[in-house]
Amino acid sequence: MDDLPLGELDAFTAVARARSFRGAARRRGVSASSLSAALRRLEQRLGVRLLNRTTRSVTPTEAGLRLLDRLAPALGEIAVALDQVESSRASPAGTLRLNVPTIAARLMLPDIAARFLEAHPKITLEIVAEDSFIDVLAAGFDAGVRYGERLERDMIAIPIGPRRQRYVAAAAPAYLARHGTPVRPEDLLEHRCIRHRFASGHALPWEFERDGKTVMLSPTGPLVANSIEVELAAAIAGLGIICSFEELLAPAIAAGTLLPVLGDWVTEFPGPFLYYASRTHMPGPLRAFVDFIKDERKIAG
Question: Domains of the chain, with CATH numbers?
């Protein structure tokens, strides 16, 4: 029974309902001979006659009627399921799980998610924001957002969010009044600096570039945290110099609670990427999101 193909069962159902090989063949868009061959194979597998055939009529046997009564609803359910899968390509539904860095969750995803979900109301978007570098597929995610240096080579990546970003340094006016303003990156080694440490325990060095020259250093200071909220509040309170994404510091700089330092020394780098495993047989929600991101980039020019 485990070897029974659905095609033969479907052929039997079609002929039994039509009471005719020719009639069933016209409805299925196949040849009558192919239906007849499928019926012969099915009867041989089961070891029982399912249809009585004469030159004038085709009628189910008693065994055929019993099989038809039980089989028709099951095949109907399968047809409905396949229709739903097919329709999901045009109107995708389901859950899309993304693993993203906290910076992307804060600065890029809210606006993107709002527009995407408005365009696809049948999709549920689950976003997990964390800065640890995990195997997103093994962890049950459909896709992830990462920066270029963290992309796995066997993954497909498309740009998402701004294509260029910058790190900038800034400090509160009160701090600069007390401790002075650094003029070279090396001066930061004599200043109190606020550092960020990832959940992995890793703290990236600060990198500054100007006129093709790169300076990397690891300053020290009174606070190390894995929360930008804590770091930003400490900088505004005058505890030390902070260096982070320009987009994160921009509101405080615009308000005057932070002042940029080393303005001619900045680090510019490519923006993040959405990455996933394969272009073939993608889940509907992921395909919709990939197409959405690509369309937005075309519109943006």
Answer: 6-90 (1.10.10.10), 94-162+271-300 (3.40.190.10), 164-270 (3.40.190.290)
